[in-house]
Structure formats: C-alpha cells, structure tokens
Amino acid sequence: MLSIFYVATLSPCTAPEHLAVKLAATHLRRRATQACQWKTGAFNVCYRVQFHDETPEVIVRFSSLGRTIFRAEKVANEVAVLRYLRKHTSIPVPEVYGSGKTWTGPYIVLTYIHGTPLASILKDPKVEGQPVLNPHISQRGLRRAYQEVAQLLLELSKPEFPRIGALAEEPDGEFGVSRKPFTFNINELSTSANVPPCVLPDSNRNDAATDEADCRGKFVARCLFSKVVERIQFHEGAFQLYCDDFRPSNILVDIENIRIAAAMDWEFTYVAPAEFSYVAPWWLLLQSPEDWESDLTEFLTRYTPRFHLFLDALRAAESDMVSTGRLQESQRLSPRMENSLDTQLFWVCLAARYSSMFDDIYWTFIDEVYHGKFTSLEDRLQYLSQEERTKLDTIYHFKVKQAEDGTIDPHYSLDDTMEL
User: Which InterPro entries does the annotation name (predicted)?
Assistant: First the structure.
C-alpha cells in the first residue's frame, strides 16, 4: 500500500488522481481532497481517496485497458455480485457507492477496507513474485486459515438459482440470471486474441498445433472429453454462485482482531454448475493453475496433504455453522468434495475452466479413467463418431493453411475497445 497521498490538482484535469477525486465526490456527495494510486492488479488500477472531513476513505477502481476486452461488462458484473452478496449473504465485501464510465473507461467506487492479503500471511517469504505456500507453516495456523476461508465458501454456495449465467439487478432491487456468464477463461481467450465470444466457436485462427500428431491429439482429446462429460452424473437441482478468482490473495485479514475483513475482486463470479463448488479448491497452495509444475503429478503430490487438511477444516466450519443455524445439513460441501480427486471430477471441472491447461489435464488424469489404459492415439479413434473422424482427417491441413497465411482476423479496433 502507499502511505503517502498526493494532492490532486486541477491541472491537468485529466490526471487520474483528479478524476478519482471528482468521481468520489460525485457519488458520495462529499468534498474529496486527495487521491493516490493505491494498487495496480491484473485487471484494475485503484486510487485511494480522502475526504476533507476525515470520513471513511473510498477506492475508485478503473478497469485496465488491454487486460480485458469487455470492461463495461466486467464492472457491471461485479457491481451486481457485490450488491447481491451484501444483501443475501454474510460474506464481508466492499459497499458499492457508484459506477459508471469516463474517458478512461468503466469505473467503480467502493469502500476502502484496510487489511493484509491472506496470501501474504501464508506465503513462503523466500520466494519472490507470485505467492507460494510456506512449506514450513504450522498445521495449526494453516488449518485455522483454511477454516475461515471455508466459511466463506459455504456461505457462497448457499444461494440457489434456476439457470447458469451472470447476475443482474432488476428494477425492483432483486436479482436474476439474465446474461451469459463472465468467466476468467472467456476473458483470457477474448483478450489475448482480440476476439469476441460470439465468434469463438467458429473462429480458431491460431498456431496452437505444432505438428500433425499434436493437432490430432488435441482434437481427439476434445472429442473424448465431451463424451466424458456426458457420462458424469451431475447434481440434479439448482445452480450455485462460483468465483473463478476466489483465492487467498483476494481475501483481506484484519490482523489486529484476527478475522477476515473482506473478500475482494468478484468480477469473474457467475451462477455455475454445482459441481464447481463440490470439488477441491484449486488455491490451497496459493498458486494459480497456470503457475503449477509442468508435471501435474508433482503438483498433486504436494497438493494432496493440504487438501486433507482443508477437508478437516471444512468439516469443522460446517459443524459450527450447522450448530448455530447458519447452515443446513444438506448444504454441507465436504461429503461431495472428499472424493473429487479420486473420481477425477476435480480435474474435469478444472479442464473445463482452464483451456490453456486442457490437454495436460486430460491426458494425465482423465483419459485412462474413462477409456482404459492408453496404448496409442489410433486406439482412441474407436470412441469417435464418423463425423468426428472425418473432421480429424481434414483439420490439420486446415490449420497448416491458416498458419501459412500469417494473417490476423481483425475484430476490435482501439476505438472499439475503448467503448467496451
């Protein structure tokens, strides 16, 4: 955090600090005096704003250009989620004072909440960069942290919805599911390729395949994965809220009172299949899936002991919430979660959410469980339909031609991107 505040001046009037002061004053109807750049994350730039009467400070958060194409949708999604969570759950989240759009793009004005990221407390102090779980952390300390976070997960899983999608606030102040889900994976695909989701099923111009064998393997894996999903007996019932970016780095801890102060960054939250909530959390070692070892079996060796510790903490959190009337017996997650590694549902859900890791996950953990011991790719062709086999014979030549063309399909100009 920055401890020094810079006085926002009127010239130039387009300075971000000045804009943050103006927006805070507009939405809170108080005279804001100072602002500083407080934090720059993966998707946002935040300014901390002070007021002349020493009333609580706020954060004005601008959505970063270039980190997501759909900045307006991202902000609208998070505003709806934050307001829903404050109204219908006990999860501590910032209050939304307002949102809108300026020459910089979409923004949101939030409560400033002081706290230390939980990941900073749990991380290995010897490792630079992205946090990695301290291998020497005490079991007792880690279990307590897991139990506190487990209560948030349980609270998040309680609301039920009739369909998959994004939350939207209705004119009467209630909430419905009326838009497509805004997921981390779709954001990454669309942003890196400058491609809108509406054309993704038909637009695959890339150099993802290195050779014919690689291309055939990737195509077969995706065909077989769709058949695996059809065989899984999914939960019959309502859908639940799920946040792709829920992790210790986005959970603030009040060190003085030893409690969770707030859970932040809810833009990639949507109503999802209940199975997403039923599988083991990916963040137990703090690292994002993209930062795991290239050999996923090595990751699993480190992950499994922490997962068993988390399960113990989850059961304790469930029992505490049941005893105080905050959770029903039927809402426990642990009975479903405890077998998610053995059944490979953990990996199925992860493969569905992280396309960049799909092939490694599928061939390492999923294929053999559902189709028997792997001998050759040709052996797997028996599970493909005739239509899929026909496509397999032509797709590599199609991809080679695309790569040889060396062209990029334009979708959004810079001006178009600024408007999103």
Answer: AGP_Transferase, Aminoglycoside_PTrfase, Kinase-like_dom_sf
Cα atoms found within 13 Å of the Cα of residue 127, Cβ hemisphere only: 15
So what's the pLDDT on residue 10? 37
The token pair that represents 226 in the structure block: 């769709």
Shortest CA distance to 41 belongs to which of 20, 72, 64? 64
Question: Under DSSP, is residue 178 helix (H, G, I), strand (E, B) or coil?
Answer: strand
Domain segments of the chain as ranges: 6-111, 116-419
Spatial distance between the Cα atoms of 207 and 399, rounded to a whole number of angstroms: 7
- At position 255, the amino acid (one-letter code) is I
330 Cβ neighbours under 8 A, 6+ residues apart: none
Q: Which contiguous run of DSSP H or E holds residue 47? A: strand 44-51
Residue 342: CB atoms within 10 A of its CB come to 9
Q: Is 30 in a helix, a strand, or coil?
A: coil
Q: Note the CATH architecture for domain 6-111.
A: 2-Layer Sandwich (3.30)
What DSSP character marks residue 330?
G
Q: What's the CA gap between 388 and 162, in Å, rounded?
A: 33
- Strands 58-63 and 105-111 turn out to be antiparallel
d(CA 268, CA 190): 14
The per-residue pLDDT for range 175-231, each reduced to its tens digit, is 999 899 989 988 887 777 666 656 555 555 555 667 888 889 999 999 999 999 999
